[in-house]
Amino acid sequence: VKASGWLQKRGAAAIFLSRFVTGFRLPTYVLAGALKVSFTRFAFFFLVAAAIWTPILVGSVAFAQSMLFSSNASLGLVAIFFAIRIIHKYSSWRNRRLLVGRFRRLTNWEFWPLWGFYAPVVVYVLWLGLRFRRMTAFASANPAIPAGGFKGESKNDIYRLLAANEEAAGHLLRHFVVSAELSVSDRLFAAEGLMSAAGLDFPVVVKPDSGERGSGVEIVRNRGELKAALERAEQSVIVQEFASGVEASVFYYRFPEEERGDIFSITEKRFPEVIGDGRSTLEELILKDPRAVAMAEKYFERNAGELSRVLGPGESFRLIDIGTHSRGAVFLDGGNLLTPRLEERIDAICRGLEGFNFGRFDLRAESFEALEAGRFSIIELNGVTSESTNIYDPRYTLLDAYRILFRQWRIAFEVGLANIASGAEPVSIGELLRLAFGKRPAMEPRENAEQCA
Questions:
Q1: pLDDT, tens digit, for every residue of 391-411?
Q2: Residue 105 to residues 51, 278, 294, 305: CA-CA distances in angstroms?
Q3: What CA–CA distances, in Å, run from 235 to 158, 191, 210, 219, 446?
Q4: What is the rounded distance in angstroms from the CA atom of residue 143 to the CA atom of residue 106?
Q5: C or N: which end of the chain has fewer Cβ atoms within 10 Å?
Q6: Which residues of 74-107 are buried (b: 16+ CB within 10 A; e: fewer)?
Q7: Bridge partners, residue 220, by sequence
């Protein structure tokens, strides 16, 4: 009785399936008769399925015949080969979900490649250069940083600039540099000695001294991971104290003639998690998640050793620990985190940095409440080309994102022009081109600046 009821209820699906899956047709017909399914209902679904199936079958045969037994026989064979490959590849649920992820990256601007997303911004920056009659004005927004922090500046030089400021000193994380000039075999020895001298223990963060968008950043948790990270390094790297807790970005600007600056934006960073069901592996949970599937390959790379693990019911698993959007962190507009105390602390730090007027702090704190109270650690300070990362909040449309970025770049030009009017040295187009194509800038040594160790 239950089987008859099921077939009555789902007869259309069963008959359609039998038409398109080899070996299902005869068993379905016999079962329908044995269970006394309504003949009228069965015949109707059968005719509809046949009306769909027959043109597909006849048309595909005619197409194949015209391709294979004509002057285009080679092209037909190639088409059939690729059709078989595609059918075989996407017969796997895993590959179908990865295809869904690629489609979501294509249709959601949040995941677009930089060259595509930033093309209108580049056009707008060129227009600003013509409007203000100085194409490189934005590069004078931070006279203390080469080209304002346009590209390739040393993170260690920025830390030294911060360390010379007593307002910032209490917010800095311990760090040291392992030079690329050392042999691969000597890097681990040097790093272990410097870790001991600085009082650092695992985990620590290893990152390129000059890098962008989280490229090459790793959290290493033991000696073996540190050794591997140092061996892979193609340039000098920073080994930095790891700060646990929550992460946020604060974008700040101040015109040189003004006493106080402004917070342009705050970004709350979330580290995505999946929740176990007691049956699915970590890989399956990532592929099932409607957002995580869009970054599945990044999460697979980050958690390669855990993908076959089955999470228990309700067990949570954090997919990443690095607050970088390109690595899979979720960014939300954190304007609600702005408090007078946080604003006062950021402004005091920035006013103590002579020659810094425009950029983004990446911060860690024990909690968002601690951040609001002005208690945080500075992970990095980025210059004029840093991004107001609140644009990636899912609530914002593509037009919203461009509106925010256009305003950010207009302010960069205005601050740069104000600095030039106050005596800052303009940056030439040639210098920007040299930086864009790989020349690394060097900061002038500043009085009382020293490495944080």
A1: 999 999 999 999 999 999 999
A2: 37, 29, 6, 25
A3: 17, 15, 8, 17, 24
A4: 39
A5: N
A6: eebeeeeeeeeeeeeeeeeeeeebbeebeebbee
A7: 204
Q: Which residues share a beta bridge with 208? A: 237
For 21, residues 6+ apart whose C-beta sits below 8 A from its C-beta are none
- Token pair 């810094």 is found at 356
Q: Is 321 exposed, middle or buried (0-12, 13-18, 19+ CB in 10 A)?
A: middle
Give me the helix-helix angle, 11-20 and 2-9, nearest 10°. Answer: 80
Tokens of 126: 């060129």
Q: Is 147 within 8 Å of 435 (Cβ atoms)?
A: yes
**What is the identity of the amino acid at 384?**
V
Mean pLDDT of 259-279: 97
Cis check: omega of the bond before 146, within 30 degrees of 0 = no
- Residue 206 phi, psi (nearest 5): -115, 130
Instruction: Give the separation between CA 379 and CA 13, rounded to whole angstroms.
Output: 56
Confidence band, pLDDT 50/70/90 cuts, at residue 450:
very low
> What does the pLDDT read at residue 438?
76
| Nearest C-alpha neighbor of 175 from the set 324, 370, 378, 327 | 378
The 8-class DSSP code of residue 172 comes to B
**17, 24 in Cβ contact below 8 A?**
yes
Q: How far is CA 403 from CA 262, 391, 398, 399, in A?
A: 18, 9, 9, 6
Amino acid identity for residue 320 in this structure? I
Q: What's the CA gap between 242 and 191, in Å, rounded? A: 15
Between 346 and 180, whose confidence is greater?
346
Question: Tokens representing 442?
Answer: 């060097």
Nearest to 412 by CA among 137, 117, 118: 137
Span 206-222, pLDDT tens digits: 999 987 777 889 999 99
